[in-house]
Amino acid sequence: SPKCRSIAALVNRRLPAATIRLLRDLGRTGDELGLPVYAVGGFVRDLLLGVENLDLDLTVEGDGIFFAERFARAKGGRVRSHPAFGTAVVVLSDGSKLDVASTRLEYYESPGVLPTVERSSLRHDLYRRDFTINTLAICINSDRFGMVTDFFGGQQDIQQRTVRVLHNLSFVEDPTRVFRAIRFEQRLAFRIAPHTENLIRSALRMKVLDRVGGIRLFNELVLILNEQEPLGAVRRMAMLGLLPFIHPQLRLSPETERAMTESSRLLTWFRLLYLNDPCQQWQVYFLALCERLRDDEFQEACRRLSMPGRFVSQVFAHRHRALVMLETLQRRLKRAQDLRNSEIYDSFHGLPLEILLYLAARTKNDQVRRLVSLYITRLRHMRRELDGNALKELGLAPGPNYSRIMKRLLDARLDAEVGTAEEERTLARELIADAG
Ligand code: ATP
Asked: Is residue 296 part of a domain?
């Protein structure tokens, strides 16, 4: 039987008042229906670690969908249920979400008799999880509020900062757990237990990852590359021999490490400046990780990960253009040729931010890096004052001159040939006169 102790004091000390109220309310719904209700998984793990995590996962010993519907009705929320899995998502009026799972395993011992719900079903449910640190459950019913259920030694592993599987076939059963083990280890500064690491190595020797579909592999990789500091996890992937499953030529060379470290620095810089500009961190790291791959190898890696075709051809085209650009810029800088702002603008215009950051991370040339940063911080925001309508009002006849003159006006802005609206208008008049 599991060790039981109450961590109600910890719950009260560490969680926000609103979360505690929510837990108490959920517990009372459980009381009313006579159903044991538990907070489980990452929420409990992070609570014990003192890490903020308000993603609440519940497991109901019994019919979780029935529970979810009752709770939502009482609180004015909505429920999306998946009867085949016995799971439901409750969306509360403030937009927050709760995941509810059921542990019910029903046995019809004889026809016509009420089903018996398996007694050890919570244990069953938790046994299906990936690591012991994710198997803890806290009861939230009123009479047992805060009681921890720990079937598999999760508390000790949290204390000893260890990632450990529950059984020897865990990675064979679900090879994506290899990635999850690394992600938790690196994020929480834990250590994968030696036996668990051996199980990873032997699963990889059995090539279990070859059986994992591209989309699942891709999802796991994105989760890793979206972690706060993914380099540690990528090093660990390299150390355990995971990279070749993405592409046989993929290695973590010192060059690649440098590009990833540089990516991290640039992403931090970028986020501080442009909090609201969306930038897909994983893409920057993915490009950096693949920096040694040739074009065709890069495409193969994307295909192995089942990235959508349109997306791949876009990223591929941009990556290609960025590399050609890098060469050109480096050549010109070496010959000490001055680059006008309008030329820098033309070099980078149309490239997504992720590619620009990759370019800056990848180059070893400080001057190139400065050009990218000039483009990101200033040039990409610059605009002309006059539009097509304004040119028409100034008397420009319809035709191809419109786009040429508008480009010329933007260039003049970029190169500080004009500074004010009035100066731009004067230049436009001259250009229109020339065109006429
Ligand atoms: P995160 O902070 O990354 O969200 P989490 O622990 O909440 O961490 P989720 O990916 O949201 O992780 O998964 C929720 C729970 O489901 C986990 O605690 C874990 O026990 C279980 N789980 C998720 N993926 C697997 C898997 N591949 N095999 C077994 N259990 C899993």
From this structure: yes
- Residue from 96, 107, 38, 108 nearest 67 by CA: 38
- Contact 130 CB / ligand 1 (< 6 Å): yes
Give the CATH number, domain containing residue 112: 3.30.460.10
Residue 413 sits in the same domain as residue 349: no
Q: In terms of Cα–Cα distance, which of 222, 226, 168 is closest to 200?
A: 168
Residues 270 and 323 in one domain: yes
Within a domain: 260: yes
CB-CB contact of 215 with 308 (8 Å): no
Shared domain for 120 and 139, answered yes or no, is: yes
Q: Are residues 294 and 343 located together in one domain of the fold?
A: yes
Query: What is the domain range of residue 398?
Result: 388-435
Q: Which residues contact 167 (CB under 8 A, 6 or more apart)?
A: none
Q: Could you tell me if residue 348 is inside a domain? A: yes
Residues 404 and 265 in one domain: no
pLDDT in tens, the chain (436 residues): 455 688 899 999 999 999 999 999 999 999 999 999 999 999 999 999 999 988 899 999 999 999 999 999 999 899 999 988 889 999 998 888 999 999 865 555 666 665 555 555 889 889 999 999 999 999 999 999 999 999 999 999 999 999 999 999 999 999 999 999 999 999 999 999 999 999 999 999 999 999 899 999 999 999 999 999 999 999 999 999 999 999 999 999 999 999 999 999 999 999 998 877 889 999 999 999 999 999 999 999 999 999 998 889 988 999 999 989 888 888 888 887 788 999 999 999 999 999 999 999 999 999 999 999 999 999 999 999 888 888 888 888 888 888 899 999 999 999 999 989 899 999 989 998 888 7
For residues 341 and 427, state if they share a domain: no
Of all atoms in ligand 1, which is nearest to the CA of residue 40? 18
For ligand 1, the distance from its centroid to the CA atom of residue 42, given in whole angstroms, is: 7
DSSP characters over 144-174:
GTTEEEESS-HHHHHHTTEE-BSSTTHHHH-
Query: Does ligand 1 come within 6 angstroms of the Cβ of 106?
Result: no
The structure tokens listed for 88 are 């439901």
Same domain, 294 and 337: yes
Pocket test of ligand 1: the residue of 44, 87, 130 to mutate, having most ligand atoms within 8 Å of its CB, is: 130
Q: Name the residue with the closest Cα to ligand 1, atom 24.
A: 130
Residue 221 to residues 179, 185, 359: CA-CA distances in angstroms?
A: 8, 15, 21
Looking at the domain assignment, is residue 202 inside a domain?
Answer: no
